[in-house]
Amino acid sequence: MRSIKSSLINYLREHTPGTEIVYKRVATALGVHEHAERELLLEAFREMMESGQLEETPAGNYRHPINSQFVEGKVDMTKSGAAFIVVDGLDEDVFVGTAKMKNALHGDIVKVLLYARKTGKRPEGEIVDILQRSKMEFTGIVQAHDKFAFLVADNKRMVNDIFIPLPWLNGAKNGDKVLVKITEWPEGAKSPFGKVIQIFGKPGEHFAEMNAIIAEFGLPTSFPPEIEREADAIPENITQQEIDKRRDFRGIPTFTIDPVDAKDFDDALSIRPLEKGLWEVGVHIADVSHYLKEGTKLDIEALNRATSVYLVDRVIPMLPEKLSNFLCSLRPNEDKLTFSVVVVLNEEAEIQKEWFGRTIINSQKRFSYEEAQEVLESHEGTFATELLTLNKLAYKLREKKFAEGAISFETEEVKFELDENGKPLRVMKKIRKDAHKLIEDFMLLANRKVAEFIFKKDKQAHQNPFVYRVHDSPNVEKLTNFAKVAGAFGYILDTKNDRAIAQSINKLLHQSEGKPEQNMLQSLAIRTMAKAFYTTKKSSHYGLAFDYYTHFTSPIRRYPDVIAHRLLAHYLLGKKGVDQEEIENQCRHSSEREVKASEAERASIKYKQVEYMLDKVGEHFQGIISGVTEWGIYVEILENKCEGMVRMSELRDDYYIYDEERYLIRGHNSGKVYQLGDIVWVLVKNANLQQRTIDMEFEDPNDPKEKIVRKKGQMPRPEFPDNPNQGKRPSRPQGPPRGKPKEKPAGSSLGDKIQVAGSGVGAESGKKKKKRYYGGKKKG
After folding, report:
1. DSSP code of residue 558
2. Chain segment 332-379, per-residue pLDDT in tens
3. Residue 230, H or E segment
4. Quick one: DSSP state of residue 496?
5. pLDDT tops 60 at residue 727
6. Alpha-carbon distance 531 to 354, whole Å?
7. CA distance 220 to 228
8. Dihedral (C-alpha) 47, 48, 54, 57: value to the nearest 10 degrees?
9. Alpha carbon distance 390, 280 (integer Å)
């Protein structure tokens, strides 16, 4: 049946909607002659009639409805096996039921036949062709039986187990953590076939789990020998001929400020006083493009990786060690080649003059952030005058940035102290102080000025293709919802234009500081933001309020910065003729790799958080509700930022109504409310390393020390007068359920600055408004 229908769909794809289709001609074209085959073909016609893909003509034949069409998009799989197809140019995703998936997997690029749109329903269709597989290799646990085996994949979006014939286990045993490659998916088979290509070890072992994360996200584990040989062959000495081409900064006070354990020093700052109260500040960036020659095997490898990946226990570098930690790294007391942005600033940090070009420096001091901060706080130590001056100028730059509409988010990240076996001993919050912000402000300045210089260099800016870091305006639907929630607490969000939105969000964040609703409002504000990406199409950076922005300051760990260096050097020499399409493809690839790296980093952090909580089962913690979804409530423990879930099915004290728009659930009988941002007490019930989940339960609310609390005292619940159905039985959602995976949804990020640790917020932005769940029994 599936084969006949697939053949019919392929035949129909060749005919324009509205064209009359005669059954006998179709049967002849498909070679359908046997009675049983003709019955299957007629059944396929009937199915397509019922689903609206075909309609009957007055002559008794068939045709596509005029409004039917084929589209291409990416599969967004749900746990049920159904999916939503994300199509560029369509406002709504296309729902595809489980039976219409044609063996497509999450992330695949597919062709979809759209069904005739029914009034009030979301778009629906069926997959007719898989154009590009997203991935064919999956990590997971082997379940071996007497005559066969399966892989239960770690990836929650992989809803099918992978069938493994026993000879293809390749030494793997029942319960092993392995990597399996799909080899085929026979027509009509429920599961794909695969073979074990790597055995990691037993689940829960540090190296097995970390190597599995690396494999799951398709990250490289080492450089091929020919790449290492090419890197080793690069000369280390700097010739006088090369020095003569550059501006020499070796006699000017210069230093680096980096994490204490860093080895790849991308950037250095120099500063010296000029006449009339002016300061010359140099932002010096490792000249990676001098060593990384375009088109070489080394360059192609760097582009493929596109970014360094920072897992909990290791760095997977973009460049081989000789380049990243030695040749290019701006190590102290060594002559280094750099690409620099040099500005002359007055006491108000206003730019009086700017210069861009290749330089040579010699850093006299390698500061850790802690060491630089000590100098800033004590006003004593090496380069105290220079650091204090830079900090003063950085404050001025920061004030201007926020005055012009940049959004001021401050979020917390975590780091781990591991023992020699990789076991987490401590989870610590990273604290950002003036030393961190000083470096950030001058890097932002360099990135902004380079982008502005390129764009304005030629009146016909399209003649100078460049790589821009773009951050779009907030999602309108999310912003509208956020404005409603903020309004319920008495805050007004001005949405008349982008600048007004940014200024009112900043005002809201400032006014809510220290208040019970602060955490909830900041979390929601972050999630209204779009995701930043790379492109040659110049646009503004909304979160930073910059009209021009690029990435120029981290070429050791980001390939787009290498592109920016090459293009800046190209245009400084007065050259043109760059292939914009090629650069755009590199930008798109780099954006995709950035997302992949971020997902891998989050997976490693989550794994270590779960491992850290293994021996905390049975203990009590205070936390903050970091997400409210239809399947459970996420709680982030305040002292270590480990996040777990209180499942909705475990709330047995009442019958709870889920209010998606207000990020809360409300007890039908008691009126008890759990809302995003509430401070609560939880008991850790279980920590599952294999699933990377932490199960929690709320403490007994009758115990005063365990009740739900609000910061600085009790907070009256906001009222929502615009919601006439509040507290009433909700109507059933129309159309197929959104059915997204029951896992923590990813949060949006603000440009490059925001990394959200607690991201269980705001499950979906579908059309459903409320749902009711049976945590306990309804009275009456």
Report:
1. B
2. 999 999 999 999 999 999 999 999 999 999 999 999 999 999 999 999
3. helix 225-232
4. S
5. no
6. 30
7. 14
8. -20
9. 10
- Nearest-CA neighbor of 111 among 97, 132, 135, 91? 132
Here the tokens at position 764 are 């979906």
Q: Which residues contact 512 (CB under 8 A, 6 or more apart)?
A: 489, 491, 518, 521, 522
Dihedral sign, Cα of residue 129, residue 133, residue 134, residue 135: positive
How high does pLDDT run on average in the chain? 84
* Confidence band, pLDDT 50/70/90 cuts, at residue 779: very low
Say if strands 533-535 and 620-628 run parallel, antiparallel, or are unpaired.
unpaired
Which two three-digit tokens encode residue 445? 């300045």
SS3 of the chain: helix, strand, coil, percent, to 5: 30, 25, 45
Q: Do 470 and 509 touch, CB atoms closer than 8 A?
A: no
- % of the chain beyond a pLDDT of 70: 85
pLDDT digits (tens, 9 = 90+) for 195-219: 999 999 999 889 999 999 999 999 9
Q: Please report the DSSP string for 117-172 in residue order.
A: PPTT---BEEEEEEEE-S-SEEEEEEEE-SSEEEEEES-TT--SPEEEEGGGGTT-
Encode 337-376 in three state secondary structure.
EEEEEEEEECCCCCEEEEEEEEEEEECCEEEEHHHHHHHH
Q: Among the ranges 129-138, 476-485, 493-502, which has the highest mean pLDDT value?
A: 129-138
Give residue for tokens 């029914």: 118
